Amino acid sequence: MSSKNTLLEVRNLKTYFYTYRGVVKALEGVNLKLGYNEIMGLVGETGSGKSVTALSIMRLINPPGKILSGEIIFDGRDLLKLSKEEMREIRGKEISMIFQEPRAALNPVMRVGDQIAEAIETHEKLKKEELKNAVIDLLKKVGLPDPDRLINQYPHELSGGMAQRVVIAMAIAFKPKLLIADEPTSSLDVTIQAQILDLLEDLVSEMGSSVLFITHNLGVAAELCNKISVMYAGTVVESCDTYTIFDDPLHPYTVGLIKAVPKMGQRGELYVIEGELPDLVNPPPGCRFHPRCPKAMEICKRTPPKTIEIKPGHVVACHLYNEG
Questions:
Q1: pLDDT above 70: residue 2
Q2: Orientation angle between helical segments 128-141 and 112-121, nearest 10 degrees
Q3: 305 and 245: one domain?
Q4: Which of 111, 155, 266, 296 is the least buried, fewest Cβ under 10 Å from its Cβ?
Q5: Residue 240: in which H helix or E strand, if any?
Q6: Residue 322 is assigned to a structural domain of this protein
Q7: Strands of 22-35's sheet, edge to edge?
């Protein structure tokens, strides 16, 4: 069973996609643990399985994708054992998601106010005037000016930062216990990124929510998150508190990611992890990182490493730390 301090625990999650090229083994035994009032960063290169993990938690994997096995324990319940109706009750109310591209998440032919109202009415029926007031209050909460005018605008009339704030307003309508943010600042300029991150931090503090923050940017994760899990090719290779991940990284992939972060005043070529992510239709045997790993051993080429706890709260999946 999950600890009483754990809001979300993902155990041995496998999600595959059945395509014409073959079976894409997108997630191969993912393990995550997120506590109450905790912000955890899920980091890794594009294609490492971060978004698929989020969609699996929300049970939004559609054909040709399929969740094959594992457990997703949320607040004491296994989400994979719930009916579709029970899961619909949880989505948007107890677990909300901020999608990566705000314009794609909004309906282009519906007014902003109607879209937020629709999200509210999914779980709560209000009178027309009460509903309008609730929408305006949400827009004010995310810092959008002149909400009375904004509710009658269409998504194409908004800037990127405004569209993202609208999506956040929809996500926080019911003060969810878990907020999943899938690279919510990747399409925004640096100034707006900082504003959105500050907004998220303030809202989470006010609501008491936990956050699974998905990003490929270690700098953003260091700024916002108090815990970080590192993903590579559909597996979690290391997880611990943010300070430790930068001060004492253990997995060679984590070490490579941190070395690749540009430093202030750095000159010359940036560090690059050699090679590229494997084809997950035919992933390498053993540890999926071994073809790129500077410390690969023979056992790495044939046996997947077990996830072990090196010290309290710091886990790693690497043969360098496995006994024997």
A1: no
A2: 110
A3: yes
A4: 266
A5: strand 235-241
A6: no
A7: 22-35, 6-19, 65-74, 77-78
pLDDT of residue 310: 93
pTM of the model: 0.92
pLDDT tens digit string along 200-232? 888 888 899 999 999 988 888 998 999 999 999
Assign residue 146 a region: left if phi > 0, alpha if psi is -120 to 50, beta otherwise?
left
Q: Which helix (H) or strand (E) holds 50?
A: helix 50-57
Residues 6+ apart with CB under 8 A from 226: 38, 39, 40, 241, 242
Torsion of CA 285, 249, 265, 215, to 10 degrees: 60
| Domain boundary pick from 156, 173, 190 | 173
Does residue 60 lie in a domain region?
yes
Residue 1 domain flag: no
Which residue's entry shows tokens 């090679």? 275
Q: What is the CATH number of the domain that holds 85?
A: 3.40.50.300
What is the number of structural domains in the chain? Answer: 2
CA atoms of 104 and 102, how far apart (whole Å): 5
Residue 225 lies in a domain: yes
- Look up the domain containing 109 and give its range: 95-173
- Strand pairing partners for 240? 228
Is the same domain home to 99 and 76? no
Query: Do 162 and 78 fall within a single domain?
Result: no
Nearest to 98 by CA among 33, 183, 221: 183
**Continuous segment of H or E residues that includes residue 232:** strand 227-232
Here the tokens at position 142 are 């995310």
Whether residues 196 and 224 fall in one domain: yes
Classify residue 291 by burial, with Cβ atoms within 10 Å: 0-12, 13-18, 19+: middle
Per-residue pLDDT, 3? 61
Same domain, 199 and 302: yes
